[in-house]
Every structure is written in C-alpha cells, then in structure tokens.
User: What shape does this take?
Amino acid sequence: MNAHSYVAILAGGGGTRLWPASRRKHPKQLLALGPGGQTLLRATFERLSGLAPSARTLVVTTAEQADAVRRDLPEVPPENIIVEPAGRNTAPAIGLLSRLLGRRDPDAVVGVFPSDQFIADRVAFTRAAELAFGLADKDDAIVTLGIPPSRPETGFGYIELGEPTSWPARKVARFVEKPTAERAAQFVAARRFAWNAGMFFFRTARMERELATHLPDAVALFEPDDRYLGAPSISIDYAVMEKTTGIQCLVADCGWNDIGAWQAIGEVHETDADGNVVIAADAILREARGNVVYAPGKLVALVGTTDLVVVADGDAILVCPKARAQEVKQVVEALKTTGREGWL
Assistant: This one.
C-alpha cells in the first residue's frame, strides 16, 4: 500500500429487507447486527484499518445519515465524510467519490466497500484486497473481489470468470444479476462463477473515464450540491461493470456474508443447541428450532416455532418464515405505495 491508496465505505443504503429494524434514518449499517456488538459500519471501518489509515479512509453517505455516521466513526476526518444530497444508488455515489478524491489526489487508487457485510477471515480478506490494490495500480484496471459460492443462492449477483490475467486474477466474462434457483444451481455446478460482493478497486481517473463513456449525460451532476439531485438512480454494476471490458476478478475465500436479509443473521451468529439465534434482552424458548429473533431490550417467548424470523423493533413487528426473508422488501414497497411512509 502506498500514499495514494485509499479505502471508501459506501454507507448510504436503506437496507429494506431488514425492516423494521432498518429504517431510513437509522439503516442497517448503523445497527449492531453482526457478532461482537459493533455496528456493521464500525466493523467495516475496523476491518479496513489494515489497508489504509483514517486519514485515507472516506465514507459516502446521505445527508439524513451523516450525523450518525460521524458519531460512529469519530476517527474519520470531517472532510472525508462525503455527503450525498440524496441517495442515488452506487453509480452516482462512486462518481461523486471519484471526482472529489481525484481533485485531492490525481494519482489516487481507491477500494470501494459496502458498509453492511460480514467477513470472518480478516487475514484472507486483507491479503486479497492488497493484491487487488496492486493490480488496479499497476494495470490501471478495475478489479473486483469475487466470493466462492457455497450454495445456489438467488439473493446475490454472480460473476462469470474468464481467462487468467495477472496471477491470481481472472478476466470477468460477465456480471449476472440475481438468478432463478435453477440458474443459480447451474452456476455453482459450473465452477466458474463467483458471488458478486460489490467490492471494487480502481484509479479514480479510470472510473471517471468509464462514467463519462457510459453515463455521459450524468457525469456533470456528480457534485455535492443540488446538481446531484438530478442524477439517475442506477447501480455501478448496471452503469459500468456490465458494459466495460478488461475487468479483473480475484476470488477471495474469506468467510464473506452479505447481511442483506434476516436469514443472514442466523448465518453469522452462533446458535443455541436448537439452531436459534436470539438478539434480545431475554428469551424463553420452548420446542423452538431454527428461529432468528431480533428484539433489543425486549423479552421474547417462542413456543413450538420452527424456522421463523421474529423482529420487534420500535413501533413495528415482523414475523415471517426464514425461507421467505427476502420478501420483506415487498412489505416496504407496500408501505410506500399505500402512503404509510411514517413506518419507514
């Protein structure tokens, strides 16, 4: 790592599949959902501390979350908190980051990381990230970290791997959106696909060129002022990664998990003898197996329940089968379309 290497945390998402704990003003990255009692954002910051010091750590967040981010990460210099006037998905966020950081350091190489992931093997993660920084710097490449799939998961995007490039990286043949169960099974069986973890490494100058090519009508809007409100809401995957060539992928077996839905909480926490994960003040469980319970400050009692998600947070309660936890996003959409946004 050199003086032109930076890490950037994207911390402006809403975490709709983790409603009702995740709300607009206090989304999932500001919740202590992982083991250890830290917020997901704080855990991400500490994980990245081995790659860059606080002075070269940046956070991109929204105006309504900025104060909470500052409280959670007091070590990050105020000028390194980049505030979006409004959330516009990852392409504008990365465009804003690249422009502002590029003005500060024209030779900057940055690794961009979501704020809501869990990494069990920090050593393996750091080693892969250092290799990715080196490739992005040496080859002026866009490099992504892929995760070896452990199951046919329909909740993640995939990366199809092509020919080897600079060892141990491989070319990205294509990015694939969240597949059906049948296609996910085919991807895992083919043994040439990785999960897309949304971690990217690049020179800011390279990213600005890519955005100018693929979003030419929007690049002038990537400024921290009212112009940003006109930026399209589009992911970096759609805007750039699926369209450009020469992207490299490093497959990192680092115990990764995307804390994107309630069933993931059961995957990263230790369970009791009956497979339950309980985050609550107290609990009484009778013939309860495989449940995920999140009810901070509350007593929860479960009797005869199997594989349920039970969430009691603030003024709302969620109960659903663990296998259907991805569908919580539909509840959030229903609240929006029926004028009940006060619950969001």
In short: The first strand starts at residue 5 and ends at 10.
